[in-house]
Structures are given as structure tokens and as C-alpha cells.
Amino acid sequence: MTIGSFNPFQMAQAQFDKIADRLDLDAGARGVLREPLREFHFGIPVRMDEGTVRVFRGFRVQHNDARGPCKGGIRFHPHETADTVRALAMWMTWKCAVVDIPYGGAKGGVICDPGEMSKGELERMTRRYTTELIEVFGPEKDIAAPDLGTGPEVMGWIMDTYSMYKGYSVPGVVTGKPLSIGGARGRSKATGRGCVFVIREAAKRHRIELDGATMVLQGFGNVGSPLAELIHPLGVKVIAVGDVHGSIYNGNGLDIPALKQHTDQTGSIVGFRESEPLDSSELLTTQCDILVPAALEGQLTGSNARDVSAKMVVEAANAPTTPEADAILLDRGIVVVPDILANAGGVTVSYFEWVQSLQSYFWTEEQVNLRLEEVMTRAFENVYLEAQMRKLDMRSAAMTVAVSRVAEAIHDRGIFP
Ligand code: NAD
Predict the structure, then answer these.
(1) Rounded to two decimals, what is the model's pTM?
(2) Which ligand 1 atom lies nearest to the CA of residue 243?
(3) Which of 208, 290, 335, 412 is in the most buried spot, having the most CB atoms within 10 Å?
(4) Mutate to test the pocket of ligand 1, among 71, 155, 195, 244 (most ligand atoms within 8 A of CB)
């Protein structure tokens, strides 16, 4: 997969180079951080339901483990590439560092179309994928999580396979598990909730009154739907929403609880009452106070960034803004709250889940949400102060905070032997 003319890993490296230059990072740390620490590429033979064997391609990339075990999701997607996984692994390192949780970054993936596979085929593929990585995964080494095309069920299969090899239950090897085997309360809404805390803090700092402010949202899935649901009570009017099937508009604000019900029943936002259809090509340029891309990478590009009509863009998705669009938005004075900060709520609650799994002591949902609020508010404040102090945009400030923390850890550990 490429984003416009950009390969995501080259994009991630270019972002890193810019910050490394600014920090005058020494050649050693630069060399360590510019490339993944380790990569695993392998074939996954799976007996399909009709009796034939298909071989899928699987990856796990560990970018860095200086601050703690590697942490990152697993994607099952037909367009997965090694470079996408490498880029996402690097972004995980920065994301964990920016919210100051003790993890490094990793990502995994399998090139497959989960929508075309039976549950049995998916389970056999997942168990074989886990077996290939049995010495790589581990609560102290590399902890998996759900991402595109995977969810709690897949995490349950990974935890079970890993535990079977070890001979005892190891819940700390994955996060995003079902509640019955040690999942964290509040995890399913954590990314959206974390994003709402970030929006609240950013609005305060940029003097946007949330009560009555307008929002346009692309994506109404795991991230977008809870985000809309949780921002609604703050008085924010979500005036337009888009998903893979189309977009809808209501200038007075969409009734989010009713839209959620409609989506649960029909599988899409399209056709929602009290809304008019909107051409999806106009969604991201619809006038609003806060624009939230919460769907895919590479949505704000050199072609549409000049027409964005928002005061603030909050990146709930990973890499929704190409570097070209980033430069245009910066030039136009539009604040961009970067993905590594805005969507870090998910990995933060994953961290809470891991801590609970290791201690076999479980928190209430209120405790999880309160601690998430503390982490996200503090992270926003650190990044905002960095931006003010060094006169940086929010992405450069977040990257500066993250890269400095990882470089400090590398320095303090020293080089073995
Ligand atoms: P999801 O699959 O649950 O939802 C994706 C949403 O985007 C759906 O509403 C889908 O219809 C919509 N969509 C897909 N293609 C589209 C298109 N071409 N145009 C408009 N809408 C489209 O995925 P998710 O978990 O909500 O993830 C969304 C983004 O957030 C991804 O970039 C993901 O990497 C990132 N993210 C997710 C989490 C998490 O906890 N789920 C954490 C951090 C970052």
C-alpha cells in the first residue's frame, strides 16, 4: 500500500529524520531508530474448508524495545505490505513514548481477506501465525493487540495458542482480549474516549468553545462511533459523518445515539433519518470547527488540503494526512493534532489491561477511564508546552517529545556489550 506517491515507511522515516536533525541526534541513536530492530516474514499454510492448502504471508516487525517490551496490533488485510507494517511499528514506538507508557513499538500483519474466510480458516491461520512467533511473543517481550481485521476473538485464539505451548495461562501476551479471559473494561471505547480528552484540551488551548462547535467525522467504526457518542454530551454538533458506503449531513447536528442505533441495525450510516446525503468527496472539506478523520490513512492530501475549512484537524486515524497536506494545513494556520497523540487512548488502556493481567487484579471501568483521562491530559499538556516553548507545530512537538524519550532510554541503557 502507498499513500499518494508516498510509501508509508518512507513517510515515517522522513518524519523521523526531520526530528532527528532538529534534536541533533547522534549517528548511533539515529541508526538504531531509523530502521526496525527485528523483522519476521513467513509463510502460513492453512487448510481451507474445501480441503486445499493456501499459504498466506505473515509479518511481525519490532521497531524498538528501549523503553519496554514491544507492543503493537496485528492487521489482517488484503493490501497489507511489509512497509506498512514497518511504518506502523515505528509509529507505535513514538505513540507509546508520547503518552509515556513503558513500551516499545511493534506491528504485525497477514495478507488475507478476513471477510472472505470462514471462522475456522481464520482460527487455523491465527494459531499458525502465533506458532511461528512463539519465541517472539511474550508478556515481557512482545505483546499483541487487535487492529484492522482482528478483534477480541482473534486475541483469544492467540492467547490460547501461546498458553498451550507454555503449559499454563498467559493472559499478558495479548491485550484487547474478551473480558472473560482478562480483557480490560473500557478498552472498546478507549481510543475514541482518549481522543475526546485530547479534543477537550486542544479546544481550551485554541479557544474553541465546544458547546455549539461543529464537527465533521470520517469513519464511524471502533474509533469514530464512540468518539461521536462521547463528544455529543459536551455540546459538540456532529454535522456530517462518512463511512465506506457514503456520507450524511445535518447542519443542526446529527442525533448520535439514534445514528448509532441505525448503524447497528443496517451496517452503515447511509439512509439515516433527519439527514441528507452528502457527496463523500465533499465530506473532508465541509465547513466545521473540528475535522476528525477516523477511517483510513492518506485521506488529507495535496489535492484537498487547500479546501479544508476547519479550525482544527484531530487525527483519530493513523496517518490520515500526507506530508504534502500537512505542509499546506500548517501554512494555512489550521491546527493539526497528530495521530501519535490523538489516538493513543487505545494503547494506553491496552497498557492498563497488561498491568491487570500481570497482577491478576482487575479495575472498574471508572478507574480505567479516570486513569486514561490523566494520561491523555498530561500527554497533551507536555506536547502543547513543547510546541509553545520551541515554536513548533503539534506534530513536530509530539515527535520531539517521543524521539527524545526513546533516545534518552537508548543512551541510559548504553550499548551492549
Ligand atoms: P473500523 O474498521 O472499526 O472502522 C473504520 C470506519 O471507517 C468504518 O466506519 C468504515 O466504514 C470507514 N471507512 C472505511 N473506508 C472508508 C472510506 N474509503 N471512506 C470513508 N470511510 C471509510 O476501524 P477503526 O478501528 O475505527 O480504525 C480507524 C482508524 O483508527 C484506523 O486508521 C486505525 O488504524 C486507527 N486506530 C484505531 C485504534 C483502535 O483502537 N481501534 C487505535 C488507534 C488507531
Answers:
(1) 0.96
(2) 21
(3) 290
(4) 244
